[in-house]
Design a protein that fits this description.
single chain, 7-stranded parallel beta sheet, two-stranded parallel sheet, globular
Length: 343
């Protein structure tokens, strides 16, 4: 198929584009290579995709309305997987306008491109952040999520609402995927595993927020990609049992669905750090800090709908995932490890 992957120089977008090319699809990728984190890492990911004869790259910003329209007209994609966004919960507190431009204006341009060019299925990245102030665990797509704790989360919730509107108005099939703390090789340098690994190897202290009383549903990148890949082929349809008097947030009368993709096994932050110490063969120096503004203490995904509809449940153990990340980090940065532990 002819597939557009936005944000393909990013962590998830790179891995998805690689998988799609291996499966024989024609892949158009777009990214603006913004400097939110190390652009060299983004270019190195891209360099592994560009030699493929079925890959085409567009250097483009989501907010560039004319450029986006031109790209859609040229590609004529059958499926769009929208992964590009301004990411980061904490960064959104200091840089709110970046989120408006990319996550709202940019998403509107994606929706318009899909509508005008008869895209068969739009699959887009949402986030576990949308659960915000919810404390009922595990987080279910059938729960109300009207109390975000960060502007980033608010923009992701807005994306879900915007997608539903286009599904209702134009019968555009839309599937939103709420990702839970993705990690693995080629990961983002602003995420905990990357930050911790770099600091521990350099003998520097790591910042442990909420005094270490945190739990995260860490989800390995290969599990995320498998979930996305299966969802691309699962065309959403209207739910005949949907009732406006008791509306189900995860489904609709329109061709629209929301799913969680998470490991569904929350890991305590101190356990996570211990597993990393084991793989690095080196102890962490820890600086305990309070919970940061916009952050939440626990995430925990209910993935029953994912399993029921596409027969998949993420299952990579945290020790195995961290081991693979550490091996990649050591090779990519040429950093020798004090000791290579087993799983």
């Amino acid at each position: 198929m002819n597939i557009l992957v936005t944000g393909n120089a990013g962590f998830i977008g790179f891995h998805l584009a690689k998988r799609l090319l291996e499966e024989g699809h024609d892949v158009a990728g777009m990214d603006n290579l913004n400097p939110y984190y190390d652009v060299k890492l983004k270019k190195d990911r891209l360099a592994l995709l560009e030699p493929h004869r079925k890959f085409t790259f567009f250097l483009l910003d989501l907010a560039d309305r004319m450029g986006m329209e031109k790209m859609f007209k040229e590609i004529k994609p059958e499926i769009v997987v929208h992964l590009a966004a301004q990411v980061g919960v904490r960064y959104s507190v200091q840089n709110p306008h970046a989120y408006m431009d990319s996550n709202l204006v940019g998403f509107l341009n994606i929706l318009e491109g899909c509508r005008r060019h008869c895209v068969q299925h739009l699959v887009f990245a949402s986030s576990s952040s949308v659960y915000g102030a919810n404390t009922r665990m595990p987080f279910s797509v059938h729960h109300n999520v009207d109390h975000p704790m960060s502007l980033y989360a608010a923009t992701k919730k807005a994306n879900e609402l915007m997608a539903h509107t286009y599904a209702a108005l134009y019968a555009l099939p839309c599937t939103g995927l709420r990702f839970f703390t993705v990690y693995g090789p080629w990961g983002r340098p602003d995420m905990a595993l990357f930050l911790f690994t770099k600091a521990i190897l350099a003998g520097q202290p790591i910042d442990v927020f909420n005094e270490g009383r945190m739990k995260r549903d860490f989800t390995y990148i290969d599990d995320i990609i498998e979930g996305v890949f299966r969802m691309m082929k699962k065309m959403p349809a209207g739910n005949p049992a949907w009732n406006g008097k008791k509306p189900d947030p995860a489904t609709s009368f329109a061709p629209y669905r929301i799913y969680n993709i998470g490991n569904s096994r929350p890991v305590e932050l101190m356990e996570f750090i211990a597993a990393l110490e084991n793989q690095l063969g080196k102890k962490a120096r820890m600086r305990f800090l309070p919970l940061q503004s916009g952050d939440v203490p626990t995430t925990f995904a209910d993935v029953d709908d994912l399993t029921k509809d596409v027969g998949f449940r993420p299952n990579t153990p945290i020790g195995e995932g961290i081991s693979r990340f550490v091996a990649w980090y050591s090779g990519y940065y040429g950093v020798p490890l004090p000791r290579r532990a087993g799983l």
